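Many introductory courses stop at the sequence. We go one step further.
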Amino acid sequence: MMINKQEYGIHTYSVEKILTYKQYKKVKKMCLDSGKVTVDSNIIAGIESYFYYGFAEHGIKLYLIGLSAKIYQLRVQIEPCRVLGAPDPTALFRVNNRQYRELVKKVDAQLEKLSVPGSVDEMKINRCDVTINVSFDDHNILLEYLRILKKGYVPKRFEVITFKKNEGKAKDWKSATKTSYCISSKNERFLIYDKIAQLEMIKRCDKGLTNRNILRFEAELQRKALKKYLGTAAMQSNQDLLFAAMDKAQPIIRGYFHKMNLDCNAYLRYADVVSQIEGTMMRAKTKEHMLYLIKKTSDGINLNSALNKIQDNLGISKRQANQILDKFRQLGISPVTLRNGSAFQDLPALLHIV
């Protein structure tokens, strides 16, 4: 297997600011006068919301939110590489002093046209997407890793986010379901997707990209999660936060693989895992439980479903089920296996490719 390239950085980040009513009214008027606004308000709930997309092609999106005629909030979503004019839509922002200053200057110049007060550098970051691109020489490898990730464990307080027809989350919900996977909690979201397929869907894929195979790993972290992963010192300035997020991209992403119980030496075909388990010196009952777990993981939705079945059908406790998982870790194998008919004998663990 060939991994052509791995790169990490920041894909998108968002900042927010509380406005006075006078400031809010002025910015709202400028947005509405442009005609490049969508409105999503709920009069009963006392919420008015405006999305300005006039700068979207330049990597900037603006949101205005009024809450109960008391709080007026501005949010600015920034895609740094697009703002800076990077020709490659798969590129990730590598933070340095010069480029950060240039980024702030360009964003401020656009926001000034809408009478937004102050600099984007003075607004507080409320979300940052820590991102890694891994390029493969074979698209089938990318699809195999997506299948493995979808079979992984959904951690406590996380849920799987799916695409549904007529929901509006994706232009092609069937394609998005096939080429991506997402787990989400209150303050963080882990998203894995075929980047080229996503660019094709939104009509941003140049001819030079069509033969590339990029699997993107993206941790969308709200401010509370950013503080947890980066520490208090990194929260002192926007530039410090972005630099720390970029610097810790690999350990943050690798942490999700641990949470999903996908840490092992390599992913093996189903039959090879069976052979390894049967060849150990463990008790017959332990082997029986491990074999049952890989079968249910292979047949079912994911590792959560398999663990529930092993408890229900074999009458073991949650603690005992976790002990079975520990046995897999001790052997350096995963209960998530490749299919016997896979084109690959084995694949390096995700921890080894990120």
